[in-house]
Amino acid sequence: MTVAQKEEVVLGSEPVSVWPEGQAVKTLDHPAILVTRFTDTALYHPRLAACILERADREGTGKRYFRGAGGTKSYHVDQWNCSEADLIHARALALFRHALSCTEAAVDLSWANVYRRGEYCMPHSHLRSTASIVYFLESGDDDPDDPLGGRFYFADPRLPGCCKEEGDKMTTPTVPDTTPGTMIIFPSQVIHCVNPYHGERPRITMSWNVSQVAVPGAALPTVQA
After folding, report:
1. For the whole model, what pTM was predicted?
2. DSSP β-bridge partners for residue 134
């Protein structure tokens, strides 16, 4: 569905700007990979995390895959009836329009991931979309024995930062700073992964696959909202 641009989302009785004044966007390793960080997270992270965890544990709205497929997923962020989710959804679309210098944004699929101990996400790209977006909500627990545990990274021979030793040979994964409140957009074909997570507290992210024009058919036709 093509989504019109929103300027504000009301949280409780307080309107919050979808795109705060002066919000900076920077490149990461490649001109088509952009990152921004929102600093007003205290307004919505607690309620948003609670919403996602409740949906992950509820039969019919949370779907747990095998350990290497990214933990438990809850799909269709814009259908959750949660103002905090609506805000981050609108911000993801605003970042897409900024990155592609366009006015239209058609979401093919959106979802939240809840990672628990031992879960990770194997290297993959995303289908049916121009760009993919990930939002980092909760980092979970640090592991002093594995500082890269649970970390999101790019591992793609097409990215210069991944090929520091020789030409197009991937030797050095690009591991961005994923402080909670960080949102990253990248071409959907770029290979990315999440290392095994070792903590006790849930690690929570949100993701979107977006294009300027909707792709016919449903990305996951059997999944409930």
Report:
1. 0.95
2. 184, 207
